[in-house]
OsmC/Ohr family protein
Amino acid sequence: MAQFVVEVEWQRSGQDFLNRRYSRKHVLRFDGGAEVAASSSPAVVPLPMSDASAVDPEEAFVAALSSCHMLWFLDLAARAGFTVERYLDRASGEMGKNAAGQLAITRVTLRPDVQFGSANPPSAAQHAQLHHQAHSNCFIANSVTSTVLCQPVGLEDTAA
């Protein structure tokens, strides 16, 4: 089975740790060499202890779901003979209390806006089916207990 490793590094850098006024900024390092500035969300830990310009875990969670869905969608569209010219998702996540009363990302909504090539575009039903299949295949969506919704732009009247 595949294994995925991410290095997460934080350093105190001389800040007073025990009073909890230390920076939450840290670095995420991925196996391909990418480094991403990360921090707690200012919605969770107030500025200046967090960094609004960095990626927070909640954003990364939403991005992982969106990216996984997109990658499956592109693969399925190619297999079905539909050329995708552009894929843009303005995904969002909502924090709230889960069934156990704990704070959690309780809902993620994907809003993919897909532009197909004009030679052989799918019907609305085929487009919706591609999203349904992508959602079913997404490893990340299959790994979470949050509700994950997909609302493709232009397919509001079609169940995905």
